[in-house]
Amino acid sequence: MSALIDLRDPSSFPTRRVEAWKYTDVRRYLRAAPPPSPEGEVAPAGPFAALTGEETAVVNGRGADRITVTGEAVRALRFVSTADGAGHQAEVAVDVAAGASLLLLESHEGRAAGYVSNVRLSLTLGAGATATRIVLGEDAADALAFVRAEVVLQPGATFNQTTVTSGAKLQRFETHVRHPGEGGGVRLDGLYALTGERHSDLTSVVTHAGRDGLTSQLTKGSVRDTARGVFQGKIVVERGADGTDARMGHHALILSERGEVDAKPELIIYADDVQCAHGNTVGALDEQALFYMQSRGLPADEARALLTQAFLIEVVDRIEHEGAREVVRTWLETRL
After folding, report:
1. What pTM value is reported for the model?
2. Alpha-carbon gap, residue 119 to 90, rounded angstroms
C-alpha cells in the first residue's frame, strides 16, 4: 500500500526511499507541516460549468464531504486552492447506487502560489452501476499537489477514468481500483503535457479479485524544457481471478534535451487462465515528419505542436462524453 500523506504530520511525507514514491520525493520539497489555509470563496464557473448545473466546490480543503447518486447524474467537483504558501487537505466520498450512472467532472484549480494541496477521494460503485471520472489538473507551477482516489466496484459495475494534467512543482495523481471481475470493466487513461520545471506523477494500482474482469489502460505524455513525467501502473491478478483481460500502455515524447520521463509498468499475476499485456515507449518526434511539414511552409514550433497533438489525441478520443471530450481537446490545444 502506498504511503498516505497527512499534512499535519511531517513523518508521513514520503521520500525516494519509499518504492512507490521513488520518482516523486515529497520530503525534498516539504519537510515541515505547512501553515493551514484560511477559508476562501470562488465564483461558480469551473472548467466544466457549461456541462452541468450541479457543481460542488471544495475551496482550501473546505466544502462538501459526500456526494450520493441514485439515478443518472452529471456533477462537477472542483478542488480550488486560493491561499498563497499555505496547506490544506480534503476528503470526499462519492457513492453511486446499484444501477445508477454518474459523470464526475473533477477539476483541480490553482488560484494561488506556493500552496500544498492534499485530496483523498473514495468512490463506491454498486452492482451494475456506471461511473465516468474526468480529471483536469491545473495546478500552479510552484505548487505541491497530491490526489489519491480509492475506487471499489461491486459485480457488474463499470468505471472509466481519464486524467489530464499540466503538472506542478510536484504533483501526483494516484488511483487504486478494487476490481471484482464478474463482468465488470475498468478503463483507466491518462495524459500529461508538461513544460518548464513541472513534474507530474500518474500512479495506479488495479487489483482483479474475481473472474472475468476487463481492464484497459492507456497513458500518453509529452515533456519539454526540464519537465519530468512519471508513470507507474500496476495490475494485480489475484488467485482465482481467471478469465481476466488486462492491457496497459504508456507512451511518451521527450521534446527537449533535458526533459525526463520515468515509467514503471507492472503485471503481477497469480492466476493461470488470463490475458494480460503491457507496453511502454519513450522517444522523440519523427524528424522526417517534422521536416515534411516544415517543407510545406509550417513554422517549426507549429509543426511540433501539431505532431505532438496528433500523438496525444488518442487519449482524448477515448472519452465517450462529447462535451467533456471537447473541453479536454480545447485544454490540450492551448498547451501545445
Report:
1. 0.96
2. 5
